[in-house]
Amino acid sequence: MRGDLVRKLIARCLTTGLAVVAFLVVAFTGATGGGLALAVAALAAAAVERRVRPDADIVAETVLLAAGILVGYARRLDDGFDPVLALTALVLLGLVLLVGPLRDAGNLEIRAANLPVRAWTPLVAARLGGVLLGLLAVVAVAAAFALPAVLALVVALLVAAGCGAVGLDLARRRFRPSGGGSPVARALRAYQPEFLLYFSAPPGSEYQVTMWLPYLERLGRPFLVLLREPEFLPTIAAATRAPVVYCPTLKAMDEALVPSLRVAFYVNHGAKNSHCIRFTQLTHVQLHHGDSDKAPSANPVSAIFDKIFVAGPAAIDRYARAGVEIPAEKFVVVGRPQVEAIEVRREVRPLTAPTVLYTPTWTGHHADANYCSLPVAEPMLRRLLDRGATVILRAHPYTGQNPASARQLARLTELLAADRTRTGRQHLWGAAAGRELSLTDCVNRSDALVSDVSGVISDYLYSGKPYAVTDLGVDGDEFLTRFPLARSGYVLRRDMANLDEVLTGLLDTDPLAAARWQTRRRYLGDFPADAYAEGFLDAARRELEPGWNPPTPRGARDTATLSPHA
């Protein structure tokens, strides 16, 4: 998160600093051309800041830039008082003052994708800030080349006309709403969705939704994805054929949650989940976006849901171990359907030229939840290379938000690049490991895993292949108690004193193989491999159709008889 703060501060300083310098150069020096060039640079910085901080207030900077550009324009024309340029100035002033309120009003409107509606007004309103910056850049260029002021006026009036149309439509929506609701609400009522996937999260979290979309689509029932942040709309809409609706307000949610809905699924414990929980006519089901022994996987907030779908009995024990009391009937063991494409392998040891997947997690929001091994990973990586291993380095999507983690990750990628050049081993990192390949692809390509405490270990467990878990010393002697999944893996200490011992077990002898298969059952359920995802699909259908009663899977039958330390 510190990386985000640094980027925002840099963008803020560039926008404000360049705007002030551009105005001073134009207003108080004879370097009009240089001042106009600085103004264009400031406009570019403002555009970047709007991408980094979509809610940034840059009205003061915009006014300053507009004033500087107009002063420079008047100086370039050198015709004394120009009424056309004065009119252009008035139009620009009006636009500067109106664009912000119009954008805010548009942001209060419901938006949708994959629905047969054309709600153009909110989309245009959201882009007015960028349009204004572009208009000022056009005026600055016209000033630089001393073009007739009427050209700048015409362009400004065209933008003003567009703003006027947006304003009128927004006013109509607000003060004279349609009796049947918004076009999106009418389209949803016609579509008749039976369930929704609710999502609210920080930027970069869309993977939490996309991992569940294929399985929700396999239910074969109409559904929608309801978002609370607008930046996710294009990405998630491209990942599904289902309607995707952005609801900025509680009123918008009232419109989107049409009477045909019966179930709401959730993939995290976002603070805004409570905005949907208030709809008591729905059955609320928590899916999570991974299974791990991290503290968030036993969040007390889970108790607010009607049902909690968990991968295996170990997840139920995790809540009890954390002192979170939730009635047993709320839990449903459904497996982890995302692992169905992972290849299960039982192989002969030792491995001669292994491929090792390394998946460092991020630093977390709090120091006591920081399980990121990047600060101490270099010796481990070097030792793997010495053993002739090919490494797939797949970092957490949030890694770049911490500048220190980003630097540490860059150092590791430099090591891999140098080794690939020297040996020809096809190490993978960055986009090649994180976007071009899925996690399943990485698991299937690898022979062993080194991971921090995270949900990756649970997924990897399905393959039957060995894994090592880094112990960063945060929990001391309680590490194996708090993270039982590490008992079936090779625990790598923070000081790397047992590095060779761990790598020997991981890549050569593998004495924990038998224990790992028992752990697999507890963490991932006991569903047949050829129909593994049916555990989730059947459970979801039971919520959608109370009469649905498929055969009880073995994992659910045997939950009560499994030893807590199997």
Commentary on this structure:
- This protein is an alpha/beta fold.
- The longest helix has 27 residues.
- Helix 3 runs parallel beside helix 6.
- It contains 24 helices and 13 strands.
- The protein is globular.
- Strand 3, helix 11 and strand 4 form a beta-alpha-beta unit.
- The C terminus is likely disordered.
- The chain folds into 3 domains: 175 residues, no CATH class; 153 residues, Rossmann fold (3-Layer(aba) Sandwich); 170 residues, Rossmann fold (3-Layer(aba) Sandwich).
- An 8-stranded mixed β-sheet has the order 1-4-3-2-5-6-7-8, with helices on both faces.
- Helices cover 49% and strands 9% of the residues.
- One of its GO terms (cellular component) is membrane.
- It holds the Pfam family Glyphos_transf.
- Keywords: Membrane, Transferase, Transmembrane, Transmembrane helix.
Q: Top keywords for this entry?
A:
8-stranded mixed beta sheet; globular; single chain; transferase; 566 residues; Rossmann fold; alpha/beta; 5-stranded parallel beta sheet; Glycerophosphate_synth; 24 helices
Number of strands: 13
Q: β content, as a range?
A: 5-15%
Task: Count the domains.
Answer: 3
Shape: globular
Helical content band: 40-55%
Mean pLDDT comes to 88
GO molecular function, one term: CDP-glycerol glycerophosphotransferase activity
Keywords: Membrane, Transferase, Transmembrane, Transmembrane helix
Region (Disordered): 543-566
Protein name: CDP-Glycerol:Poly(Glycerophosphate) glycerophosphotransferase
Set out the fold topology:
Layout: H1 2-28, H2 32-52, H3 59-77, H4 83-107, E1 111-113, H5 120-126, H6 128-144, H7 149-175, H8 183-191, E2 195-199, H9 207-210, H10 213-217, E3 223-227, H11 233-238, E4 244-246, H12 250-256, E5 263-266, H13 274-277, E6 283-286, E7 307-310, H14 313-321, E8 331-333, E9 355-359, H15 377-386, E10 390-393, H16 403-423, H17 431-434, H18 439-445, E11 448-451, H19 455-461, E12 467-471, H20 479-482, E13 490-493, H21 499-509, H22 513-524, H23 534-544, H24 554-557
Parallel strand pairs: 2-3, 2-5, 3-4, 5-6, 6-7, 7-8, 9-10, 9-11, 11-12, 12-13
Antiparallel strand pairs: 1-4
Helix pairs in contact: 1-2, 1-3, 2-3, 2-6, 3-4, 3-6, 4-5, 4-6, 4-7, 5-7, 6-7, 15-16
